[in-house]
Write a structure and sequence with these properties.
177 residues; two-stranded antiparallel sheet; 6 helices
């Protein structure tokens, strides 16, 4: 029996790994699966930004300091109204819509998804007066959803090849988030 290892790494978070053992040796191209994983990622990110971080593992983002909130309201009123991490909406758009700065690179066995913007990196950890506001902040439930999406897609592929797979009927009704 062959195993496929899946790992997810996000700067500032512990590594997440899962093994899938229901895969034929010749299953080599995960790109169709990465499309489905990308959909889950973008949905998680939309919820994170809509909730000002509340839906993430670290909880709600700290409010803006009064002095900066006043500056932001004057220069970026729409961003100020939307809350932390929305000054120009560039970070949100890169992580939810594939906007400028978005990173989505896939090949047969790897997916890299996120943002190439520098600004969000400053918020991974608190520093001085700046609190941490993680813009990629997956919960255990989010990670499990990604695992189930991968498993479902692998099972669909194996089933398409004519194999009888235990558990497939239960998985095909699974909906991500």
């Amino acid at each position: 029996m062959s195993w496929v290892n899946f790992s997810l790494s996000v700067e500032g978070l512990p590594a997440f790994e899962r093994k899938f053992n229901r895969v034929a040796d010749d299953f080599k191209d995960f790109r169709p699966i990465w499309v489905e994983v990308g959909k889950v990622f973008y949905d998680v990110e939309k919820k994170l930004f809509a909730s000002s971080g509340s839906s993430g593992a670290s909880g709600k983002w700290a409010p803006l300091k009064p002095k900066y909130a006043a500056i932001k309201a004057k220069h970026w009123p729409a961003g100020a109204a939307a809350g932390p991490m929305h000054r120009t909406f560039a970070t949100r758009n890169s992580l939810t819509k594939g906007g400028a700065g978005a990173v989505y690179q896939s090949n047969a066995d790897e997916l890299t998804i996120g943002t190439g913007l520098d600004y969000p990196g400053y918020h991974l950890r608190a520093s001085g007066n700046r609190p941490a506001r993680k813009v990629i902040d997956m919960t255990d439930k989010d990670l499990m959803t990604i695992s189930k999406v991968i498993q479902r897609e692998l099972l669909k592929s194996v089933k398409r090849e004519g194999f009888d797979v235990a558990g497939y009927d239960q998985m095909k009704g699974f909906k991500a988030l």
